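Dear colleague,

Following up on yesterday's call, I've attached the two folding results inline so they're easy to grep. Please treat them as preliminary; we haven't cross-checked anything against experimental data yet. The first protein's sequence and C-alpha cells come first.
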Amino acid sequence: MSNMVIIGAQWGDEGKGKIVDLLSAQSDYIVRFQGGNNAGHTVIVDGEEYILHLIPSGILHQGKVCLIGNGVVLDPAVFCQELDTLASKGVDVAPAYLKISRKTHLIMPYHRALDKAREKARIEGEKIGTTGRGIGPAYEDKVTRIGVRAADLEDLQLLRRKVEIALVEKNALLTSLYNCPAISADEVMAELTPLAERLVPYLADVSGVLGQARLEGKTIMFEGAQGTHLDIDHGTYPFVTSSNTVAGNAAAGSGLGPRELERIIGIVKAYTTRVGGGPFPTQLDCEIGRHLQSQGAEVGATTKRVRRCGWFDAVLVRESVRLNSLTELTLTKLDVLSGLKELKICVAYKYRGEEMQYPPQAEAALAEVEPVYETLPGWSEDITGAKSMADLPAGARAYIRRIEELVGVKAGLISVGPDRNQTFSACS
C-alpha cells in the first residue's frame, strides 16, 4: 500500500472527513499535519454522527494510531473535550492510539481573545471570516518565536514564564488598541494546569514514530484540513487560513520526508462552496444556489455558518492539481445535483479582456473575473443508492468524465451520500 495525502481541492468543506474515515481502513497511521480546531470533519458511521476538530478521523477505526503533527496548533481544552465526547461513544482514545507531537504549538486563552478582538474591529467588507478560535495568533507566536509548545506542558515553571512573556505584548494590544480587559498569567495557568495533566501522557516524538513506522513497512495517511485555496501562500489572500493547506506541507507538518508522499488525493465537491469572506466567481445568489445549500446541508460543522454555493469551478480545481501534484480526485455530494435540469461548469475565467485557464495572481483579482461556463444536461434520478458507475444515469456519468477532462486528473472515488457505504470506485 502507498502512503497517501488527502487534501481539499477547493475552499474546504469538501467532505474530507468521510473519505479519510473510509480510507483509514487501508492505513496503519493517520496524521493531522496543519490547522487547528477551526476545521471540523463530520463522519457518519452506522447512523451515528461524529464531528472531529483536532483528532484524526482514523480514531474511529479500532487499532489505528492517530498522530497530531508539529504543523497543527492545538487548543488543549478543545482536545480534552473531544477526548471526552469520543470516549462517551465508546471510542478508544488511549495514548497507545493517539499521540501529539511535542513540537505542536498550543492555542492559549489570549490567542482566542486577540483573534475575536481583531475581527470585531475590522470594518464591514474587510472582515476575514475568522472562526475566532485563536488559530492565527497562535501561528504568529510560533513565527515570532514566543509560542508555547506541547512539550512545555511537562514543565509548568517554563510554561508560566513563556505565558508571562507573551502577555506583555498581548495585554498591550487587548487593552490599548481593542479596549478589552487584560488577561493575567494566573488566569491562564489556572486553565492550563489541569489540562496539562491530561495531555502529557499523549506527548510523543511524532517524527520518530513515523520514521519507525516506515522502517517497519507500515502505511501512513496524512489528513489535511480546510482546502487548497485557503492556503496562506497559495490561496485567495487575505481571505485565507493561517497555515499551508497544500499537500507539500504534509512533510513539514509531520516531520517525515517528502519522498514518503506517494498518493495525493484531492477531495472536491460536485459543485463549489465557500464559508466566510472572500471572492467566489461561481457563486449562485438564486434558487439554484439555495437548492444546493438545502440539499447539501451546507452548514459548517465548526461554525454553524451557512456556506455560499455555486457551480463547479474547474479553473480553481485545475490550479489545485498543479499546486498539489494530485494523483486522483474524489468527487463528493454528486447526489445533491439530482433534480437540476441543467448543470454548468466554469471552464475558464475572463479577466481584463483575457481568457485564463488558471486564476490570476494579483490580490483581489479573483473578484474581478467573469466565469466562462459550459452547460451539461442534468438528471432527475435519486442516485443515493448507487453502488457503481453503471448505476448512475448517463447525465451523471458524463458530468464526472467532463470534470476529469477539464482538470486533467481521473476520479478514484465517487460519493453519493454521507454514510461510509455511499461511496464507490469510479472505475467500477
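Below is the second protein, in the same order (sequence, then structure):
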Amino acid sequence: MKKDFTIYPKKYRSILGIKDTEKAIKSIKDFFQTNLANQLNLQRISAPLFVRSGMGINDNLSGIEKPIKFEIKADKIEAEIIHSLAKWKRIKLAEYNFKWGEGIYTDMDAIRKDEERLDNLHSVYVDQWDWERIISSEERNLIFLKKMVEKIYKTLKNTEEFVHRKYPKIKPILPKRITFIHTEELEDTYPQLSFAEREKIASKKYGAIFLIGIGGKLKNGKPHDLRAPDYDDWSISTSKTKKGLNGDIIVWHPVLKKAVEISSMGIRVDKKALLRQLKLTNNEERKKMYFHQKLLGGKLPLTIGGGIGQSRTCMFFLQKAHIGEVQSSIWPKEIKKKCTRNNISLL
C-alpha cells in the first residue's frame, strides 16, 4: 500500500452513531439543496452518470485524470463516466430554454479512479451538487461572484443551525461571515509555503474563506492549483493586478485541524476567455469538440456555476473525522483496520 495520508485524531468519538448518522445525512441533503435552490433560483434536473466520449462535455479536471470508458453494445457508442458536470450543465440551460437569472442544480455522482491519495477527504467516489445559473455580460465581474458566494454561505449557515437544532450536541462553528482572500495575497504573505499550507493558515485564522483566483499562474510561475481551461474563467478579472473570476469555499475543520474545500465555483468562460485559456494551456485542439464549437458559435448562455461536495458538507456539519463515515466507498484494508482501531466507523 502507498503511504497512508489519513489523519487519525486522538480520542476521537463520533457524536452520532451509524443509524443516526444515516438519518442525519438525508436530513442535511434535503435541507441544504432546498435552501440552495431558493437562494440561487435553481430548478432541479436529472443528470447523467456517463456521457459520450470525445465531445468535450466531460470535465477534464486537472488534465491528467482519465475517465472510465466503456462501449454501449447497442450502437457501438463509446461512453465515459463523468468527472463532473461543469460543461454539461451549460448545454442543458440552452436546450431547456432557461432565461437570465434562472438556473439548475442536480445530483452528480462520479468515479475518479486515478485518485491516488485516499484519506480523510479523498475518495474514489465523488458526490456533489452541481449547479449553474445564467448571467448577463455585465455580471461577469468579481462583485457578482462575491454576491453568489455569500448566498451559498448563507445556505451553509442555515444548514448548520438546522443540524444544531436537530442534534444539540453538535455545536455551530462557522463564523458569521465568510472572508474573501486572493491567491496572490496568500502568496505575498507566505511565499515559502505550499498552497495547502497557505489554505490551512488562512482557514484556521478566519474559519471560512473564499479563495479567489484558482488556475492562473502566480508570481512564482505556478498556479495555486490546477483548473481546466474550458469552464471557469481564471485568467482575467475586473482588477488590474489580480487574476481570476473563480475560487473555492474552504472551511476550518476542528476535528482534523485541517482546511477542507467545500465548493469550487466560478464565472464561466466566454468566447474570448475560452480561446485565451486553451492557448495558455496548449489545448487549442479542443476547439473542434462539440461543447467548444457550441460556445464559440454563441449557442451557449453566459453562466456562473460550481460544485458543492455532498459528502464533505455532511462530514463537516456532523463533525466527522473521515469522509467514509458519510459515504460508502472502497478503502485499502490497512486504512480500514486503522480506522476501526481509532473509532472511525466507515460505512
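For the second protein, one point worth flagging: Residues 184 and 241 are 9 Å apart (CA to CA).

Best wishes,
A.L.
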